[in-house]
Each structure stands twice: as structure tokens, then as C-alpha cells.
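Retro notes
What went well: the complex prediction finally ran end to end.
Inputs used:
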Amino acid sequence: MKQNTEKQQVAKRVPFNVPDGYFFDLKNNIQSHTENLSSREGFGGIFTSKTIVLTFVYTVIAILSFNYILNPNSNNENNFINEAYEEVILFEIENINEEIFLEFLPQDEYVFSDDIQYLIENNTDYDMIIE
Amino acid sequence: MNKYTDKELLILFKDYKKRNYAFNCLVNLYQERIYWHIRKILISHEDSNDVTQNTFIKVFENFTKFKGESKIYTWIYKIATNESLSFLKRKKRYFFESIDNVSSNLMNNIESDQYFDGDEAEKKFQKAILTLPLKQRIAFNMRYFDKMKYEQISNILGTSVGALKANYHHAKIKIEFFLKEN
């Protein structure tokens, strides 16, 4: 009976071994990994706030892109207004001759008096009209 | 001997200052059993070493989520089994092999393993175990070598006790057949 039990124990032995001192090294390796993980957890707050900022930036970019895709015309209008504004500024900077500037102004349709109309039609000298 | 219960270890672990101490207790207590469980699945010492380390790192990362519904021992066994299965799946994918080829590679590992210290009969017995389908092999090892109860194996592998009993019976028949034929 005793022999049978011994035989069974031998049969149930796992026929593998490990290098000397392996389990001591294994414990140390596992501990060094997990201690690194622990110390990283200490910086968790920084990573969290960094993540929040990044998420915020990406969200803003996403919203702007989405808005551009949905309303391309409004952006075109804005661009047109900006361009016109820039042209006006340029005009002022370059200080273009006043006469040329006046040419660009919308012309009012003047209604001349009959006398003046007559003089214009007969190609009368402008100075005479003044007199 | 561990002087802490599962609950006490969990409480210690949740305290940030005592976390490393609690985890060291856990490693001391279970590392050998977990290593041998993995070694019987993967055969190679180097692979088993990597998977054992990964298992304990996973335990460390997820220990605060452990609710204590099962024993820590069962929970770690479950993680170790899943890690070993994932390792074999990755290996299978990496080498474009079927799981049968993985088994035959494991048999070759036994032949060339410098850390195999059994005799010819034990080598033959290990090869016979390797002919079993993977999950059946794991269940057989847990029952035969680790003397675990069917209920415990059922909790770890998520298989019913009835199915496990049937599996163990079929596994024994297959092993006997292999030993007679070879």
C-alpha cells in the first residue's frame, strides 16, 4: 500500500526543473517591474491634466473642422470681407491720388438746370458757365 | 507561511504606502505555484518565465479591481491560464502554425529542454499529455498534478464540473492509448 502511494507520488512529479536561485530572481524581477509601475502612478495627476489639455485642443480642432465642412459659405463670406478690408487699408497706405480715388466713388446722376444743359450740349467753354 | 488573509492583503494593497509590501507577500505566496502551472502549459522555461512575470504585472495592475468574490489564488490562476493561452495564440499567429503544430513544437521542446530532469517514462508521459487538446490538457494538469478540486478548476476555466469530469476521463483514455501505442 505504502509502495503504491510512493509510486503515485513519483508519477505525479513534474519532470522539469529551473536554474539555481531562479525563484529569488523571479521575485526580484517582478518587484522591480511593479515598483516602477507604482512610481509612475505618482505622476498620474500630471498625465491626467496633460491628457485633459490635449483632449480639449483636439476637441476645438474637431469642432472647427466640422464647422468648416458644414458651413463652407460662411467662411467664404468672412474671407471676402477680410480681403475687402485689407484692400481699403492698402489704399489708404499707398495714398493714391485723390482724383483717381474720386473716379472709384459711385457717381451721382446730376440733374442740370436747362441753361447749363444747353451750354453743355453746345460744347460751351466751362469758364463761361462759371462767369 | 502567509500571515494575512485575502481580505487583509486587499486592504493593505489599497493603502498606497503599503502596496508594495502587500504585493511582495502575494508574490512570495503564489509565484512558485503559478510558475509551475504555466510551465506545464508552455513547457519552455524561458517562455514560462516571461508569462509568469506578465501574469504578476497584470495582477498588480488589476488588484484594486479584484472584488474578492473568489479566492485570490483562483483569480491569479485564471489570469495565468489566460496569459498562457494568449501566448500560445500569439506564437501560433507569429509562425503561421496550427495549434497542432504548436503541440508538436512543444514535444520537440521537451527533447531539447536543458531543464527537463525526468527519465524516459516521464518524457513519454509528458508527450502523451501534449497530444491532448489545449484546454483538456490544462484541465488534466490541474487535476492530476496540482490535485485541484473540480469546482476550483471550473471557476478558473469557466467550464462546468460535469464537462470537466468527462474531459478528465477522456484525457486518461487518450493518454493510456498513446502510452500503449508508443
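What we learned: Residues 2-130 of chain A form one domain.
What to try next: split runs per interface for comparison.
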